[in-house]
Amino acid sequence: MKREFGDRPARTGDRTERTERNDRPARSFDKTLPTAGRRFGDDRPARADKPRGPAPAARAEHNDAAPRTPRRDYEDAPGTLRLSKLMSELGLCSRREADEWIEKGWVLVDGERIDTLGTKVRPDQRIEIDPAAEAAQASQVTVLIHKPVGLVSGQAEDGYQPAITLVTPENRWADDQSEIRFSVSHLRQLAPAGRLDIDSTGLLVLTQDGRVAKQLIGGHSEIDKEYLVRVAYGEHAVDVESHFPPESLELLCHGLSLDEQPLKPAQVNWQNGEQLRFVLREGKKRQIRRMCELVGLEVIGLKRVRMGRVVLGALPPGQWRYLAADESF
């Protein structure tokens, strides 16, 4: 229909709501729902012969004061928490996986299927996982790489090659006993769980399994990691042990701080005259190199040989294998 001069255009808020509803459904974790936009002409003075509603400022004040009806999954009842967080705390999966499963309708709470992100639950409610989610989780793999010097653990940096590029059929260790058949799908969402810097070598774990990642690098991880570290002390590169003060070795075990935070106790002892063995239960950035620097040691070489119960063993540099079904960290 032809518009006459002076007709007001349609309210922008109506269009916004239709767009949100039809084109891009609002996720339940958005705490603010889209509101209607102001109509064209609301800022013009009211005509004397046609009383207008309250002024924009007053109307805005009225709207702000009006209580909003909370969305069902955002009702912050005492003692509740997000379903995805609870699933992660229970060790069922990672929070990312939990969100994916909820979106797919693979999670039931007290027998009710949940498909809304942000849903709050009580810790005592019964959580069940659809067999489809269990099958998807069972197909996830964990890869062990003997990372050589010169490769980065995660994303490519400054042109350096990321370690994941080593995961090819040609580089798979011939003595891999896992019996898992390689698939390119195993490369999707394969991420490092505990990094090694570019100058370090040894055991690097890449995993698709959020449970493994949480176990190795989660905030409450108790998995220890073992390193062999070749060092020099001042001008001494041979028989360093005889020149290094015993009290400095005690500091390496306990008493140092990094980033203004005290370090957890560590096991540090001499393997031979030039090589130290470190066992840590935390993993700050370049931690061992920085610890050594604080006591006057220079790191010549650093190799990670164990994470929990999984050892590097005879895995050759530049090759990889799967974590077997009977192995765990």
Could you name the CATH homologous superfamily of the largest domain?
Answer: Pseudouridine synthase I, catalytic domain, N-terminal subdomain
> Order of SSEs, N→C?
HHEHHEEEEHEEEHEHEEEEHEEE
Helix content: 10-25%
Question: Approximately what portion of the residues adopt beta-strand conformation?
Answer: 15-25%
CATH architecture heading of the largest domain: 2-Layer Sandwich
The average pLDDT is: 82
Low-confidence stretches: 1-48, 53-75
- Determine and state the CATH class of the largest domain: Alpha Beta
The radius of gyration computed from the alpha-carbon positions, rounded to a whole number of angstroms, is 29 Å
Based on CA inertia axes, which overall geometry fits? globular
Which fold name corresponds to the CATH topology of the largest domain? Answer: Alpha-Beta Plaits
Describe the structure.
- Helices cover 21% and strands 21% of the residues.
- The chain has helices spanning 12-22, 56-65, 83-89, 95-103, 131-138, 210-217, 246-253, 287-294; strands at residues 81-82, 107-109, 112-114, 120-121, 127-129, 142-147, 191-192, 201-207, 225-233, 257-258, 261-262, 267-272, 275-280, 297-307, 310-311, 320-322.
